[in-house]
Amino acid sequence: MRPPVNRTHRAPWVLFVLALILLVALGLRLHGVNWDDGHLFHPDERDIYMRAGCMYDVLTETRGSSRCGYLQQYPETVAGIPSPSVFFDAERSPLNPHWFPLGSILIYVMVIGRSIVELFTDISALDMRYVGRPLSALADVGSVFLLFLVGRRMYGQGVGLLAAGLAALAVIHVQNSHFYRPETFSVLLTLASFWAMLRMVERRRLRDSALLGLFVGMALAPKVNILP
């Protein structure tokens, strides 16, 4: 691998082109956010919303939450905000989703998001797609920006812009941004790990090593199988 290229000078046209690329990327990823008209054809995405909805109902002690979906199989779950003893008890904690094909962080983010939205208006579990999908889109736009940073640091501004432009128009990236699934978040945090790795190699500072460790750990949260 070539040594990182230091580019301290940023020409105004570079910033303009980068901003244009990011705007195009954002537009493509937010267009048709309700593409399935609420039918939620992707089973994993639907499961995330439903389990997050159940967790929210149990934490807020909503009427009938004990009959909510998968929680019928776990009657020992304690409703309400858990005490420390309940929090660390996997059998009783309401924060245990009992579902691990994907990272649980996706469920927790939806629970937090719904808690914020409910301060202003009522929203159903499945309508949280209006929160989850834009978050996925923003994560992928962040990946486009990080591709520019990594490309610029390694090979110069032109390569950085080319990489960002190709990613902005990549069909698979646009498609994944229309689902609330781990892929967009994993890619974002993996690219952040590469960026931190380059900083660590260049500067050899403890804080850069710590930043790299943080990003690698966060990248594993949405989807642990990125590790291999």
Automatic annotation (TrEMBL):
Residues 117-225 form the Glycosyltransferase RgtA/B/C/D-like domain. The keyword Repressor does not apply. One of its GO terms (biological process) is lipid biosynthetic process. One of its GO terms (cellular component) is plasma membrane. The keyword Transmembrane helix applies. Keywords: Cell membrane, Glycosyltransferase, Membrane, Transferase, Transmembrane, Transmembrane helix. It is a multi-pass membrane protein. InterPro entries: LipidA_mod_glycosyltrf_83, RgtA/B/C-like. It is found in: Cell membrane. The chain crosses the membrane at residues 12-30, 99-120, 154-173, 179-198. Its main location: membrane. This is Glycosyltransferase RgtA/B/C/D-like domain-containing protein.
